[in-house]
Amino acid sequence: MKIVICAGGPYIVTGNVPLYSKTIVQENGLSRLKYLGAIPAGEEYHLCRCGSSGNKPFCNGSHIEKKFTGTETADRTPYAERATLQHGQEVDLLDDDRCAFARFCHRPHGSVWELVDYSADPQLRREAIEGASECPTGRLTALSDGEPIEADLAPSISIVQDPQRRVSAAIYVTGGVPVFGADGTPYEVRNRMALCRCGYSHNKPFCDAVHVTARFRDGHENEK
């Protein structure tokens, strides 16, 4: 399983990586990810990266007419070196500031950053860990005694909608699927990451939430 970035073109996915449709929903004031169904894809498929395909989420060659460059600009410094460390009472937090605006970090009793500060309380500690672990970009990682707390996520790719904002969100990748740049250089393997599919991110190939201000829509953004 791997994802290879085509220069000026799509994400080339090989190895039968499962492809799903999901949406962000609000329940009792809390954001969560809802499964909508599997998307037939096959052993190899090409996902649109420029945001212009007429066959989203798949590439249809529109990047050529658009003259999309898609130059990769993301910092390749390892996450542990790039992230800042916030010390809490019982749980610490790593934060590398990569945000896809999923809002899973906001829990019933506060944001993950606030909850870490009061993590001696068992309920607040649980909420802090849940909020950090559900961050789709991998921006947030809860630490216990210096060790990362990570869910055991299966390899998958999800095409995500955000009907609350009336936009289509990023491509969520889980389970350590390797990503290779257009020059063949691998990115750090992560359990969670979010890839840009609107074409406007300033941190390609990763999502930086600009799909919200760009009002990116793939035609399925109202799915619930």
Explain what the structure shows:
The protein is α+β, with helices and mostly antiparallel strands and 224 residues long. Helices cover 14% and strands 31% of the residues. The chain is built from five helices and 15 strands. It has helices at residues 62-66, 79-82, 112-117, 122-133, 210-213, and strands spanning 2-5, 11-14, 19-27, 30-38, 44-47, 84-86, 92-95, 106-107, 110-111, 140-144, 147-148, 156-162, 167-174, 179-180, 192-195. The strands form four sheets. The chain has a five-stranded mixed beta sheet, with no helix packed on it. It has a four-stranded mixed beta sheet with strand order 5-2-1-14, with no helix packed on it. A four-stranded antiparallel beta sheet has the order 6-7-10-11. A hairpin with a 2-residue loop joins β8 (106-107) and β9. The radius of gyration is 17 Å and the shape is globular. The protein starts with a strand and ends in an 11-residue tail after the last helix. The relative contact order is 0.20. The model has no long low-confidence stretch (mean pLDDT 95).
